[in-house]
Amino acid sequence: MHALAIAVVDAVRRDNLIRRGARVLVAVSGGVDSLVLLHVLHSVCDRWDAALVVCHVHHRLRKEADDEAAHVRSVCAAWGIPCAVRAVDWDSDDGRGRSIQDRARDHRYALLTEVARDYGCTDVALGHHRGDQAETVLIRLLHGAGVHGLAAMRTKRKLHGDVALIRPMLAVSKEDIVAYAREQGIVHVHDASNDCRSYVRNVVRQDVVPVLRAIQPRIEALLSTTAAVCASEDDVLASLAQEARARICIDEGTAVTFDRRAFLSLPLALQSRLFALLLSDMNVQRKALDAARLWDFCSVVACERPTTGTWDIDAHVVLVREYAMMRLALRRAPLSRTPSVIDVANDGCVQDIVWRTVARGGDAPWRGASLHEAWFDARLLNEHRLVVRARQRGDRVTRLQHGTKAVSDVFIDAKIPARVRQLVPLVAWEDGHILWIPTLHRSPYALVSDHTEDIVHMWCTMDELGDWKRNKKQ
């Protein structure tokens, strides 16, 4: 058996890349790396009773792409391997804020997943090699990566659902791949875009690596080893971060809260990794997960002042401090400045306020009810047009006992954070009288009495207010 084939078989066994009886989708561009991978797997797949299928992704970016697709089809036909060609649909791509390479990779992985499922494949094999791994480590260094980033490419990782990406040649050098292709007479195409210095990877490959190789001839092997060491340490941190999350974090669906002092009791490396885990689960943009930014977030938590505040993580997620508690939450849109009308004649929901009208029965659930829900006399409630709105300057509420109180003082006395105050819906008559502030205040208007016939039951679905009050009591 050829030495390169032995290296691939060893990698498959060591990392359990191909299960017995599996169907493996091989991503083939037509270049030397992917065709050598296909040739090797084709020669050894009987060892695992595995079946191969090829997928070629037509990116529709270069005039040579049609010829490359035809070449892959021709090779597969000659070797007796099923081949699927899929073209990228760029019309469905808005392209905002991302490079053409990133977008092409996302489209490619989506199509590979689709084809893998169509053919019943559980693994997608890629032709990445040791040189690619070394380049990835260098690029990650340029972006300030920590251990997680420097782990670079894994030999196996989840792609989507039950489909995994495998890289059987990750420990093989480019020189050995080219030599194998020459010895086996494998005809391949050349992607001219790999020569373009507009792409960072190409600059690293053509300019940076040769300089480093002149200093250290084994640079690619050493960087590959560095990635493997970082991957091992990264796995340990990932496990510890999961344990820390279960111990100190409270999952609230669209948000996660944790005690500041419990977080600061963790080693700094684990603080950073826990942040990365939480943000990744919230689908935060990758650039927000750079090691330097993660340390910045840890520094925010460590600062004694301010005791309250909000910091942007990205366009969709914020970090909030509320005294002793920290909160990562999806950014919530403010209430509309235009009041929303409540039609009590029909059950409904507007701006987090839900209502239903029911006939008064024998039970009296409104007696002693908490401020988390409200019960109104339907006839009295309809004396004026009813709306849901945000608070306004000068708003006051009428107390059940006597007198009035500024809405701002209601929030302050309850120690409701400023960022939550802007989100709380107020149920009011259009003439300005406020009937209910969820969880905080109930006015004496439209109370249910012995003469009430129909009752309007209201409750609020806003998570932030209830979650904050619940955490404050803990």
In summary, what is this structure?
The protein has helices at residues 3-15, 32-44, 65-79, 100-118, 130-142, 147-150, 174-184, 200-215, 219-248, 260-264, 268-281, 291-302, 378-381, 407-413, 418-421, 463-473; strands at 23-27, 51-58, 83-87, 123-125, 156-160, 163-166, 249-251, 255-259, 308-312, 317-322, 325-330, 340-341, 348-350, 353-359, 373-377, 386-389, 396-398, 404-406, 426-429, 434-437, 441-442, 454-460. With 474 residues, the chain is α+β, with helices and mostly antiparallel strands. The protein has three domains: 3-129 and 152-200, HUPs (Rossmann fold, 3-Layer(aba) Sandwich); 252-330, Uridine Diphospho-n-acetylenolpyruvylglucosamine Reductase, domain 3, CATH 3.30.465.60; 340-473, no CATH class.
Search tags:
474 residues, alpha+beta, Rossmann fold, Uridine Diphospho-n-acetylenolpyruvylglucosamine Reductase, domain 3, 3 domains, six-stranded mixed β-sheet, five-stranded antiparallel β-sheet
Number of domains: 3
Mean pLDDT: 89
CATH superfamily of the largest domain: HUPs
Q: In oligomeric terms, what are we looking at? A: single chain
Characterise the protein shown here.
This protein is α+β, with helices and mostly antiparallel strands and 474 residues long. The protein has 3 domains: 3-129 and 152-200, 3-Layer(aba) Sandwich (Rossmann fold), CATH 3.40.50.620; 252-330, 2-Layer Sandwich (Uridine Diphospho-n-acetylenolpyruvylglucosamine Reductase, domain 3), CATH 3.30.465; 340-473, no CATH class. Helices cover 40% and strands 21% of the residues. The protein has 16 helices and 22 strands. It has helices at 3-15, 32-44, 65-79, 100-118, 130-142, 147-150, 174-184, 200-215, 219-248, 260-264, 268-281, 291-302, 378-381, 407-413, 418-421, 463-473, and strands spanning 23-27, 51-58, 83-87, 123-125, 156-160, 163-166, 249-251, 255-259, 308-312, 317-322, 325-330, 340-341, 348-350, 353-359, 373-377, 386-389, 396-398, 404-406, 426-429, 434-437, 441-442, 454-460. Strands 3-2-1-4-6-5 form a 6-stranded mixed beta sheet, with helices on both faces. Strands 7-8-11-10-9 form a 5-stranded antiparallel beta sheet. The chain is elongated and about 95 Å long. The relative contact order is 0.08.
